[in-house]
Amino acid sequence: MYPSFDLTGKIAVITGASMGIGQGLAKALAHAGAKVILTARSVQALEAVAEEIRVEGGEAEVRQLDVTNTAQISKVMNEIGEAFGRIDILVNNAGLGANHPAVDVTEQDWDSMMDVNLKGLFFCCQAAGKIMLKQGSGRIVNISSQASVVGIVDHAVYCASKGGVNQLTRVLALEWSSQGVNVNAVAPTFTYTPGTAERLDNPEYYQNVVSRIPANRVAELQDVAGAVIYLASSAGNMVTGTTLLVDGGWTAQ
Questions:
Q1: From the CB of residue 39, how many other CB atoms can be counted at a distance below 10 Å?
Q2: Number of domains present in the structure of the chain
Q3: pLDDT of 61-74, one tens digit each?
Q4: Residue 65, pLDDT score
Q5: What CATH number does residue 20 fall under?
Q6: Mean pLDDT, residues 169-176 taken together
Q7: Which InterPro entries does UniProt cross-reference here (predicted)?
Q8: Which of 46, 65, 106, 146 is the most exposed place for a label (fewest CB within 10 A)?
Q9: Which pTM value belongs to this model?
Q10: What angle is formed at CA 147 by the lines to CA 142 and CA 148, rounded to 5 degrees?
Q11: What gap in Å lies between CA 1 and CA 24, rounded to an integer?
Q12: Active-site residue, 205 included
């Protein structure tokens, strides 16, 4: 039997789906056949993405979800599980990023980023994981970063939060994989999105970034989406507890 990347009939929940990478992942999962449930703080921001998916022949619904609200996380995941009978795939894409020299980081800077990038991600895993464990199957893909394995100047809090994502991914895989739930992370390098375009369209900034990427380019949305679909599909059946770097070779150096 050959591996399949077909996600037809799968119920896929995506957090942070109104963000650049989240939008691309939602569209890619829908193209692979999944019914996607887009979540974010603003439902209005999700409707346009959902409609694009529907126009292209895919299935999409939206739900309001603030990942800093743990009670809401549990409520929304349970509502999705009840409405569709299952959750097959969870992609944790909600995240914050900011530049702060370490000496300038405030407690609020630390808490706001950790609340989204690590705490919110964990409780999304937990809420969806409970449903997946009951059904005996599931795929969780956490969006990490190359900054989880290398240091990035002025990103102490971000690097710490994403390093934590990798560790959570390992532990959840150890606890849940024997029960049919695979947990992995995807760690992209700088990725061109509407949100990063302002910086990456600056030739000096772009060259500074690309000079550290052996592939000689930044990532595109399809690069990240390909890794997510692989891990979410039967092609990734034997992969769990790993962080898949989509970094063009940055961390190989």
A1: 29
A2: 1
A3: 999 999 999 999 99
A4: 97
A5: 3.40.50.720
A6: 98
A7: NAD(P)-bd_dom_sf, Sc_DH/Rdtase_CS, SDR, SDR_fam
A8: 106
A9: 0.96
A10: 55
A11: 30
A12: no
